[in-house]
Design a protein that fits this description.
- The protein has 172 residues and is of the alpha+beta class.
- The protein has two helices and 13 strands, in the order E-E-E-H-E-E-H-E-E-E-E-E-E-E-E.
- The chain has a six-stranded antiparallel beta sheet with strand order 3-11-8-13-6-5. A five-stranded antiparallel beta sheet has the order 4-7-12-9-10, with no helix packed on it.
């Protein structure tokens, strides 16, 4: 994927990769997160770039602990010199015409979106500069460098539910 950095007179293009993967316990984890997403207060709704129902930044549940271990140990554990930390995580629930404005997640190192519920008409996750679209698929994790600008176009259905979050690094 190409990332364009700089003003109109000083453009730099870089190749940046992202990862899409499904959890080994796939449907079981997705069902747990779906249940948990329905028991949490969505008190940050419409106050951030997410123009949809959204929970606080610091949600903790059994399903989120499973996601945390999966990402920080199994996927990013290859970075043995560093300790990866899930720095914040939240649920977002989209109804028709709700969307997320283009943004990045700096100073985090990595960010992710996990598709919990994706009815027909669910909007894709779009990497803004490259216009790369990731079609929502229930149980799919998209892990990407936090520098990448991304957005969600207006949704065409009710009940698109995702878990999103950021990963920071601490030296061991």
């Amino acid at each position: 994927m190409d990332l364009v950095i700089g003003g109109a007179d000083n453009l730099v293009t870089e190749q940046i990769e992202f990862v899409t993967v499904e959890h080994p316990m796939g449907e079981q984890l997705r069902q747990l997160l779906l249940h948990e997403s329905k028991t949490i207060d969505y008190n940050m709704s419409y106050k951030t770039n997410v123009q949809a129902s959204m929970t606080d930044w610091e949600v903790e549940t059994k399903g989120i602990k499973m996601i945390d271990e999966w990402i920080t140990q199994d996927i990013l554990g290859v970075y043995e010199k560093y300790k990866m930390i899930l720095s914040n995580v939240w649920f977002a629930k989209y109804s028709k015409e709700e969307y997320t404005r283009s943004h990045a997640h700096l100073p985090a190192v990595f960010s992710f979106v996990y598709f919990i519920q994706s009815p027909v008409g669910s909007s894709p996750l779009v990497f803004t500069h490259s216009k790369t679209e990731i079609e929502p698929k229930e149980g799919l994790l998209v892990l990407f460098p936090s520098v990448l600008y991304h957005h969600v176009p207006p949704n065409k259905c009710d009940d698109r539910i995702v878990l999103a979050g950021n990963i920071s690094v601490a030296t061991r």
